[in-house]
Structure formats: C-alpha cells, structure tokens
Write a structure and sequence with these properties.
The protein contains three helices and three strands, in the order αβαββα. By secondary structure, the protein is α/β, with parallel strands linked by helices. Strands 1-2-3 form a three-stranded parallel sheet, with helices on one face. Helix 2 links the parallel strand 1 and strand 2. The longest helix is centred in the N-terminal third of the chain and has 16 residues.
Length: about 120
C-alpha cells in the first residue's frame, strides 16, 4: 500500500492507529470511563431476567472484552440467551449451547435478508 494512503493525524501528522486494546495506546478518556460506568450499571441491573447478549462480528483478538463476559453472563443467568453472528467464527461453549443462536454468515448478507 502506498504510504500516502495511510491515515495521519490532522493536527500533528503522525500515523493513526485503531483504538484497539493491543498496547499501551488504548484511549481511556473521560468519555470512555463514563460509558464504562453506564455499561457496568446496566449489567448490574440486568443480571437476572430475560436478556439477549447479541454479539456481531466479534472474533478472538480480545475475547475477554465481549465474548467471554457474554458467555459467563449467559451461564450465570438461566433466562439469558447468547446470539452470535460471525463469518467463520460463530460458536458457543457446550455449557450454554442450548441457549445460544450461532449464525456463521456474513453480517451484511444476514441484515439484507432480514430487511
């Protein structure tokens, strides 16, 4: 790829990187912490009852952020369901398989079919 096509910061001109939890450059600013607190509150409020944990296109780059916590919550809550839509990576552990819907397909195609 020509380096001229790589994204750069409009302020300092340094190369941009994705905000992934892969190194010490992951951005956890005030907005991130506010959103994380709201999410933690939501999780506490919905620890029981009917909950759908919907996972769209989550792979194994950082499974401890979404995938594993979703599995754990479904395991702990017998009224919860896990749904996974992922091309070549849809699956659930045997412990929650009876409360899981795993679709191994392209997300864009599935959404087109649903519409």
């Amino acid at each position: 790829m020509p380096t001229a096509l790589l994204p750069v910061c409009p302020h300092c001109g340094r190369p941009l990187t994705m905000n992934l939890r892969s190194d010490d450059k992951f951005v956890e600013d005030a907005g991130w912490h506010t959103a994380a607190a709201r999410y933690a509150d939501w999780l506490r409020a919905h620890a029981t009852g009917r909950v759908l944990y919907l996972e769209l296109g989550v792979g194994y780059n950082t499974p401890g952020i979404i995938k594993y916590p979703f599995w754990q919550r479904v395991l702990q809550n017998p009224r919860a369901t896990y749904a996974c839509l992922n091309l070549h990576d849809a699956g659930a552990p045997r412990e929650i398989r009876d409360r899981s819907v795993c679709i191994d397909a392209d997300i864009a195609e599935v959404l087109r079919q649903l519409l």
